[in-house]
Write a structure and sequence with these properties.
The protein has 217 residues and is of the alpha/beta class. It has one domain (3-51, 70-213): Rossmann fold (3-Layer(aba) Sandwich). It has helices at 12-21, 29-48, 83-93, 142-151, 169-178, 208-213, and strands at 3-5, 53-60, 63-70, 74-80, 98-108, 114-122, 130-134, 137-138, 159-168, 184-192, 194-195, 201-202. The strands form three sheets. Strands 1, 4, 5, 6, 7, 8, 9 and 10 form an eight-stranded mixed β-sheet that branches. A two-stranded antiparallel sheet has the order 2-3. Strands 11-12 form a two-stranded antiparallel sheet. The longest helix is centred in the N-terminal third of the chain and has 20 residues, at 29-48. The termini are far apart.
Length: 217
Amino acid sequence: MPVIDLSQGDSILNTFVSELRNIEIQHDAWRFRRNLERIGEIMAYELSKQLSYVSKSIQTPMGQHTSGAIDDRLVVATILRAGLPFHQGFLSCFDRAENAFVSAYRKYTDKLHFDIHIEYISSPSIEGKTLILVDPMLATGSSFELAYAALLSRGTPKNVHFASVIAAEAGIAYLRDKFDMDTFHLWCAAIDPDLDHKSYIIPGLGDAGDLAYGVKM
């Protein structure tokens, strides 16, 4: 599974990721959400270079013009709730894409151990389409795996792109082991080295859902 780390080049993307991490800026929930959205827009642009295209002619006021148009049928899926602004960034670029939503949460068996549970799925058919599954944080990889498994109840996609803002090396290794095919791609805006004892990414940025929408009970 190819891994594309967009932090390897200098761009405004790295500034947006840095602001997400910065505790001096994190108190501004609007800015946090907007940065997630902007990162999604940039990542969607980069991902668009990997899609299939077909030539189409259009009529301008002055004549005919031929250019490339996306030939893939896209479904953008996200894991609620932290993924919503990130998802919107992708949708701003892929404005004709269909949309899918999966509710996944950690159910702790004790203070340190948890299982991932899928509670809700809303999705069109993904049969033969290009699925883009987005979630800001890739920690252990379990949420991505289970969300994808749930979406398979709606068909088998032609290609799959996993997209994350910050990915832990352990989560990347886990997905590579589970999805060792060229039809799967993983896109990251940053890669962090560690997970703590609760499987939060280090240095990471904290709880993306709480920072975007407020602390949950």
